[in-house]
Specification:
By secondary structure, this protein is α+β, with helices and mostly antiparallel strands. The protein has a single domain, classed as Jelly Rolls (Sandwich). Helix content is about 15%, strand content about 35%. The chain has two helices and nine strands; from the N terminus they run ααβββββββββ. The strands form three sheets. It has a four-stranded antiparallel sheet, with helices on one face. Strands 5-4-7 form a three-stranded antiparallel sheet, with no helix packed on it. A two-stranded antiparallel sheet has the order 2-9. It is globular and about 50 Å long. The relative contact order is 0.25.
């Protein structure tokens, strides 16, 4: 998939916002640039406080995820902080306790940490996500789990 220049710029700003907060990405040094914060949070989707791994080997991984109509991620968890931006489609995320959250194009997701969940595309178009993992070099960002 080839991303447009505007999409790449938006993704770079999103990463800066996610990692350093909105003041790091909003600077008067960039004349003519319009910066629109997407999200600012201190907790994940289910209310957990955001914490970062304590490591001497940090690793940031950025991937795109395409979920076809009717598709799902399968039950999994993230042992590290994960952030996503919905480029298109509508995603329903179910948690182990049965609660659900929905995300649409333009929404950002502050993923839950160490909490099993499953993302499903309930819409009529593919879901496209850009996902940012703030992990540890050599450690998994995602772990598949069995649903109870």
């Amino acid at each position: 998939m080839i991303l447009s220049r505007n999409t790449i710029l938006a993704l770079m700003l999103f990463v800066a916002l996610a990692l350093f907060g909105p003041t790091a990405a909003i600077s008067s040094d960039y004349e003519g640039l319009k910066v629109s914060p997407v999200k600012k949070a201190t907790t994940t989707t289910n209310g957990q406080r955001i914490t970062y791994p304590k490591t001497d080997s940090p690793e940031v991984t950025v991937v795109t995820v395409d979920i076809p109509q009717g598709g799902e991620t399968g039950w999994h968890l993230h042992p590290i902080p994960v952030y996503a931006y919905v480029l298109s489609g509508e995603l329903a995320v179910e948690f182990e306790d049965g609660k659900q959250s929905s995300f649409r194009e333009g929404d950002s997701i502050i993923e839950v940490v160490n909490a099993p969940h499953n993302g499903r595309n309930l819409g009529k178009t593919p879901v496209k996500l850009v996902v940012f993992y703030t992990g540890v070099e050599g450690s998994p960002n995602t772990v598949k789990v069995q649903h109870k």
